[in-house]
Amino acid sequence: MVRGQAENLLPMLCRLLSDANLDFTDLQGIGVGIGPGNFTGVRISVSAARGLGFGLQIPVIGVSTLEALAWGFSSPVLAAVPARREQIYAQLFGVEEETTPLLCSPTFADLHDLVGELRPPVVGAAAKTVAEQTNWMCAEPNLRLIEAVLQIAKARFDQNLLKEMPTPIYLRAATDQT
After folding, report:
1. What is the dihedral of CA 169, 173, 174, 178, to 10 degrees?
2. Of 16, 50, 52, 91, which is least surrounded by CB within 10 A?
3. Long-range contact set of residues 110-113: C-beta below 8 Å, sequence gap at least 24
4. What sign does the dihedral 87-50-44-141 (CA atoms) show?
5. Residue 72 falls in which region: left (phi positive, over 0), alpha (psi -120 to 50) or beta
6. Are 54 and 64 in contact (CB under 8 A)?
């Protein structure tokens, strides 16, 4: 949705719950994508999830876009999504030491510090761009993004791995979002 996210999100949620013969009081927890991604969309979805969680007194579990893309891979994988200005957001998963998301160009030179000597398959909307610049293989996500967010959030909920309310992942300054 290009425009109207704020106006349409809660009515969409109401319709979704109604179609399932549920209402908000039936929810036990809320999973929400926290980015990186579209600045306005992430901010709106996280704010709505936090507000509902607070009002319903239920946990809200944040899941990064990059983590959701990498969900289900048993070996190292690089998740990459477009970040405008010929840049990408990237994060390596499936390695011993946890990595953090990075804002960079999709070239080997910029990704080398993140992946080292690995040549991981690349998953996500920027996978083809990275593969063209690095000669690494593209991979398909194991699940649709929303399904992966749901599975990760449910796993954290079931394992009682609940943290404080989620906040959006911003890798670019708010004044630099155009």
Report:
1. -110
2. 16
3. 111/78
4. positive
5. left
6. no
